[in-house]
Give the backbone structure.
Amino acid sequence: MGDNQDMARPIWSGSISFGLVNIPVKLFSAVSRKTVRFNQIDSTTGSRIKQKRVSAATGEEVSYDDIVKGYELASGDYVTVTEDELASLDPDAVKTIDLQEFVDLVDIDPVFYDSAYYLAPSPETQKPYKLLVTAMEESGKVGIARFVMRTKQYLAAIRPADGHLMLSTMVYADEIVPTSKVELFDGLADVEVSDRELEMARQLISSLEADFEPEKHEDTYRLAVLDLIDRKAAGEETVIAAPSDEGAGSVVDLMAALEASVAEAKKARTRHPTAKTAPEADEKKPAKKKAAAKKAGAKGGTKKKSAAKKAS
């Protein structure tokens, strides 16, 4: 019920600026995060823990009115900044999403995507909205735009999806960590793989080929936590299994592992005749050109237990 109320309330209202055309729209969150939230509890009294803001110098509690923002310099000193000083730097709270350019969706690395939203038209401006959606669908282009929401300027990608527009906020290029700074890939370019190993890897990929169905993927850890909460709330005693060290420190025979994986995948396909089989996947037919982004709203058909209903 709470999710439906949140979906019915726009988090931003304005218009898409497209040349000399302005199309009024409303922004709705396309994602509702499902997490299990815990509170910190005193194990002896069962009461909640409260956190206090204290001075590192005196150890005494500091009132909220006496707290200011400070930026730590390399020297360890702090530069304090007031709320008024920060407010003077806020971007103009314009109510437009300025489409600056159109690019191919495949040219955008998914690492740039942040949060997803629905862009909905107002009832009286459905025609220009539909016109923009149709033109973008036919051209196969994605609009790159800037807009201001809650005093912050965002870079965003706007794309058509099933007759409507989706907006994804994006991170900036200087926020992406270059692989050269990760140091996890040192020496990777010098590693060699044999033709036989590569062929087996291709067969494994082919045997596992499938259409993406988001509704069949679940957060099994969250469901297990909710199940644990349900059982403990019902007074059931829980037994914690000892961690298994199976496979720890073992050296994997790559070819043997690939061959076994391919064989197991083929067995799984025979148990599910509706799925694609490995021979079908190996046939060199022209692959369908799939849309880079499928339906944003996946139907969640899994029934949750009582604690799951409370959490969602």
